[in-house]
Specification:
heterodimer, A: about 140 residues, alpha+beta, five-stranded antiparallel sheet, 3 helices, B: about 150 residues
Chain lengths: ~140, ~150
């Protein structure tokens, strides 16, 4: 990782992966087109209201893609990311700025495991995940 | 309800190209500036065929040929869209995937389990992904939850 290389990570260390956003309607529309996810409640406010929501809300996989960006931005080479998983904990919304602090849960000088929590500015968790890194 | 009869069933293989234009729309939406994903000329100068795909992009390519609930429908699960939600996603990466590759996806319903006294039923779809050379490039796991 640019701030600390994988070989230097130690168990218990916290890494600030930075933030993404604020999330805009345009991002959700571009993401729908670029991801084959054409679910209307994410891109059409009329469809969202008809389905009982106040507004469009963020595709869970868009939040995960943002989190993936924050991780691979810190790596010398994106292929150092060997596995990546996330649980959709809550909906993210237009205007959210999502930030991640990662905790190193395993490290052996060649590989490391990160526990991830992706939260908005109010501290509400949207995704909880894990990443496996290796040199 | 017994779930055993559903487990182990696979959807027929689906094949899709990794399209540059669509990948560019994806990287624009996500705000990617990483040159591995956005700079074709630089990647070629490094000896690669072109840009590679970001960490979650396999799911996007897969979705184009394999709708999210198909592995459940194939297994005979009755799906109520209004009560069905995406719960988890997992990627395992074994080989780089580049724009211009052609990927084949085989999804298998590998597990079904319940939580909260049967209020929530989770369906696990595991997709094996291979490229045009027959190389195993990785796996995509999608967990879908149906609320009673």
């Amino acid at each position: 990782m640019s701030m600390s290389k994988i070989q230097d990570l130690t168990v218990g260390q916290m890494i600030d992966l930075g933030s993404a956003g604020p999330i805009t309607r345009a991002m959700l529309a571009f993401y729908a087109g670029g991801s084959n996810d054409h679910t209307k409640v994410h891109i059409d406010i009329d469809a969202a209201r008809e389905a009982g929501f106040e507004d469009v809300f963020v595709q869970g996989m868009f939040s995960m893609a943002l989190l993936g960006r924050l991780i691979t931005d810190r790596l010398d080479d994106p292929t150092q990311l060997r596995a990546f998983e996330a649980r959709m904990v809550a909906k993210a919304h237009i205007g959210d700025v999502l930030a991640c602090e990662a905790r190193v849960t395993a490290a052996d000088g060649r590989s490391a495991e990160l526990a991830l929590s992706f939260r908005n500015a109010a501290g509400e968790e949207k995704l909880r995940g894990q990443a496996s890194l290796a040199i | 309800m017994s779930f055993e009869k559903f487990i182990g069933r696979s959807v027929d293989p689906r094949t899709a190209p990794v399209e540059r234009g669509m990948l560019r729309l994806f990287t624009t939406a996500v705000g990617e500036t990483n040159r591995y994903f956005t700079d074709d000329a630089w990647m070629k100068s490094q000896g690669y065929p072109g840009v590679m795909v970001p960490s979650t992009y396999l799911q996007a390519v897969k979705l184009g040929v394999l709708p999210a609930l198909e592995f459940m429908l194939m297994a005979g699960v009755e799906v109520d869209i209004g009560k069905t939600f995406h719960a988890e996603e997992r990627f395992i990466y074994r080989k780089k995937v580049f724009a211009g590759d052609t990927l084949t996806f085989v999804e298998t319903l590998t597990d079904i389990y319940q939580k909260k006294n049967g209020e929530l039923t989770f369906y696990v779809g595991d997709t094996a992904v291979t490229n045009q050379h027959g190389d195993d490039v990785g796996e995509v796991r999608c967990v879908t939850v149906v609320v009673k």
